[in-house]
Each structure stands twice: as C-alpha cells, then as structure tokens.
Amino acid sequence: MNSKANKLKLYLPIALAAIFITATLRCIACLINLNYKTGYFEEKILINIAGYLTVGFCILFLTYPFVTERGKKLVAQFASPQAYVPTGLVAVSLVFLSFNLLISSAAKGGSSISSALAVVLGLLGLVSIGYFVLNAFITSPPSSIRAAFGICTVAFLALYAAFLYFDTAAPLNAPNKIVDQMAFLLSALFFLYETRISLCRGKWSLYSTFGMIAATLCAYSSIPSLITYIVKGNTISNSVYESLFIFTAFIFITSRLIMSLGYNEDREHECVTLMRAHIEKRQEEIDENESVRKQAYLEMLGKLSADEEEFEEEIYEEISIPEEAYPEELEGESDITENYD
User: What is the pTM of this model?
Assistant: First the structure.
C-alpha cells in the first residue's frame, strides 16, 4: 500500500470516530436540552462541547493536504458495485426533497425570496439527479456530461444554504439552521472536487479533506434531526426530507472516502493515458503535415530556381548583340587607344 493511502488510513478512522462522538453528543443535547418552540438550547454545556469538538476535528482534517505527498498520479477505484447503493439513496432522497420544495412553494405562494429560491431549487434538484444516475452508468473519469450535471449539484447545494438563510421558519441565528447551512456548504465543496474528477483534474488531497469535513458535518446535522423526529416527533431542520437528503449525502461521501483507500499511484491515470495518446497522435499529424509542407516548399523553390535560370537565359538572348555587328567600332577604339599611347 502506498504512502498516500496509508495517510488516509490514519485520518479516516479519526473521521469516523469524530462522526460518532459529535453526532451522539448533539443527539443527546437535542433530545434533552432543546426548546422545540424557540429553536434554542436551554442548557448549552453539552451542545457547546459537541460544537467545539466538531470544529476541532474539522481543523484537524484541514492538515491532511500538508502531510500527504504531492505530485502523485492517483487512480480512485470508484467503478465498483459498492457505489450503487449510496448513489441510489442520494438520488431517491433528492427526488423527494425537490418535489417537497416545489409543493411547499406552491402552497405558501407569495413572491418572497425563499419562495422563489424554493422553485429554483426544486427544478435544479431534479436536474442534479442526473449526476448520480450518470455516476452509476458512466464509470470512466473523462465525462464532460457528468461534469455538467455535477456543477448543477454544486449549485443546488450552495443555493440551498442561501435558501435556509432567507427562510423564516426558524430564527436567523438558530443553531440548528447554522449547522444545516454548514453541512450544505461543505457538501458543495466536496462535490466541486468530485466534479473535477470527471474533468480529469482531480485534486485528491483536497477531495479527501473536504470529504471528511463534509461527512462529519452532514452526520452532525442529519442524525440528531432524524432521531429527534422519530423519538419526539419534532422537526428541528427545515423539513424531514432535508434531513433525509443530508443523511444520504453523508452515506455517499463516507462511501467515497472508504473507496478512496483504493487509490493507486503505481500506474498512470486513465484520463492521463488518453490525453497522452491524443497528444501523441496530434503530434504525428503535425509532423506529417510539416513534412508535406516542407517537401512542397522545396519543390516550389526548385521550380522557381529553374524558372529563374530559364528567364535569365531568355533575357540574355534578347539583349545580346552579335560580335559581327560592331567590329569596325571595336577597331576604331583600338586605334584611338594606340594613338593616345
């Protein structure tokens, strides 16, 4: 196993432990300390500990790019049946979330910013489903179509964080709203680096870094929300469909991180090989065209040289005067020269 994977093997168990510890602490705090009417915690000791631990773990994960080797050619083994279930779960939950946004916007009516964003997000979410569908059927890294749908997914996640900001269902600085916003924003960053893979421009250390952070925040946001909904019957996020989507995103990101342990740096990346073959083929075409142009130039130069010699001979024949046409003048000039001497 290469050194890069060994570093991820050290960080990934820490990330899983962080997910378990922080989600458990927040879950307990939501069950016993949260006022469901106001959206604020009555006792803040436990939730503060959970929050500080979450921030500390995220800062720790930010050190990952600095302890990994740079310039390695890595291959992520994502073409696996293990990816089908997480991908399908995210796609299905995104369908429910998108339709819930459209239905809730139509029910509320009005022209508020949150209603307009809900419509845009509902449509964008339905388009973003295509990214996860293509992930299941297109396994090769070079895919501009999948990258385009990936950008839609990134836009959906970022805009949803804005939607939560303008939503008036919870106070602006409600702790649960802030947690959900951070989960969506960091997920957007992760999927941005996920999309770079489709363009053969993957940055693997940052991909793993934001993957660990996003997985931690998604679990920190969704698991307590779902357990609180099941146990207490109260929704502490914008909707239960939102919590389900964040939870499936957590499963998807975690599965990606686990499969990332199969990074291989012993062979060249598939898309790099394709690009190299294309460059070599193009270079051969350029060399061949250059040879043809050079040969044509030499032939033209030779023809011009022959034409020039033929032209000079014709001009010389036209302007030349036979010697018998002026022998007397030549003799006269000779006599004058002799007299002068």
Answer: 0.74
